[in-house]
Amino acid sequence: MSLSSRHLLGLKDVPKEDIQLILDTATTFREILERPIKKVPTLQGKTVVNLFYESSTRTRISFELAEKRLSADSVNFAVSGSSVSKGETLKDTVRNIEAMKVDMIVVRHACAGVPLMLTKLSDSNVINAGDGIHEHPTQGLLDMYSIREKLGKLEGLKVCIVGDVAHSRVALSNIYGLKTMGAKVSVCGPSTMIPKYLDELGVDVIHDIDEAIQENDVLNVLRIQLERKAREYFPSIREYSKYFGIDRERLEKNGKDILILHPGPINRGVEISSEVADGSSQIILQQVTNGVAVRMAVLYLLGTLN
Prior knowledge:
Elements: H1 16-32, E1 47-52, H2 58-69, E2 73-78, H3 90-99, E3 104-109, H4 114-121, E4 125-131, H5 137-151, E5 158-162, H6 169-180, E6 184-188, E7 204-206, H7 209-215, E8 218-221, H8 237-244, H9 248-254, E9 259-261, H10 274-277, H11 284-303
Parallel strand pairs: 1-2, 1-3, 3-4, 5-6, 5-8, 6-7, 8-9
Helix pairs in contact: 1-5, 1-11, 2-11, 5-6, 5-11
């Protein structure tokens, strides 16, 4: 079996069969990560460029590790110290990289649509590692994998995405992917952070966090993106934490055994308390581990298409 596309730009319109294949393949690679020798020769001879125009820790390191685990040659590009600081355009940067005969490009950029543009400039397989506030497909996939690993299924589950949905590329990828896999998706947050178009996607909107906890099996708690001026959308961090923050007292009051995810990095004491972030209900570090396996699966499936 193989994927229906030679790129991964987002999860919108990605067939259920493709998502299922990625998740199932990730299970195989997840087992490899538990071995004493965590390396396989699957992509030996392939060259992958990590083209990151935005700061990243988890996603960049996760992709680098995934590439090394598959024995691919990995090249990391950072804006600082590159010709971009001298005025080189994205188009020229990509064409120069392409001239070096690379096989795959993993790209993160502040502008939505850049991964799609790269598919028109390059013959390489392109993987979107986050473009603006559009999508972050591998994060959506690793979230789905982590839920399935913990609860045994996706179909029929009720998943609520909590927080800064308007600025979140993670939210959109989760919505597309989860709905494709048969989950019921809702969002919860201040009305200023909930996009108006969610009704068109068949997503329920909840403005009471206690109601969200009571009615759902999973909470995917998003980071408040202070670097994107998210603070302008609510009166204060203290007030946001009071009305939408997840803490142990709130979970105990609702008496619900609920699974909690967070894409990281965590703003402790804002969207989630330290007690919850370190507690038994969350699988935040499992998400990080699973991210390597999911990205190995994506790299493998795209890298063996050629």
